[in-house]
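From: lab user (bench 3)
To: helpdesk
Subject: output format question, protein + inosinic acid

Hello, I'm new to running complex predictions and I'm not sure whether the block I got back is the full result or only part of it. Here's what I submitted:
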Amino acid sequence: MKIVFATGNPGKIREAAEILGEGFELVTPAELGITEDLPETGNTLRANSMQKADYIYKKTGMNCFADDSGLEVDILGGAPGVETARYAGPQRNADANIDKLLSEMARREKEAAMARTNGLSTAKAQRTARFRTSVTLILNGEHHFFDGVMEGTIGTKRAGKGGFGYDPIFIPQGYTQTNAQLGDSVKNAISHRGKALRAMAEFLNGQH
Ligand code: IMP
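Helpdesk reply: Thanks, we reran it on our side. This is the complete output you should expect:
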């Protein structure tokens, strides 16, 4: 089945091709001459994934899907969440985003340690976090939604060269290495996007 993946992120395209397998011919917006940034101005992951899919559907009339993902860090009260891509600014730079996340977490950890020293709290700072993704599929003009979550913790420094985005600091639950160390096939088997895209593939395979 031919389907457009509404993203310009080569890391996501590589992952989706592996997750969806040979039954799907993935087409990218760039291959259709659409090179501008896709709109994502919503307040939720679902609103953003829908906005990106709608944009491509309106332009091409083709079956398509988009994902929008966010990282929730517990010690930061769930931030950066829907702001994950632009955490360190509109340039969406992965390195700057990681630097900002690590320094914000270090600041909060220091505050929590101080509160413990002063007897104001007994809480120990946690580094738990999760990636969430929302996938919007537009099939024959109708919307369908698929979600996925990957639990884990945030490492104190970068490790590994694989993956993209925050992968060098995200350690999935049950593992001791980061996503960037584990590599695509381990990551895809357990990731937020892997879960949502496999649910989408199951739905599509059941359509015919
Ligand atoms: P978006 O879904 O493209 O808007 O991505 C939101 C932000 O999360 C970007 O900074 C991505 O780099 C990051 N991100 C999304 N999925 C992953 C992932 O699987 N690993 C690491 N970072 C990710």
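A quick orientation on your result: Strands lie at 2-5, 25-27, 64-73, 80-81, 128-139, 142-154, 170-172. Let us know if anything else is unclear.
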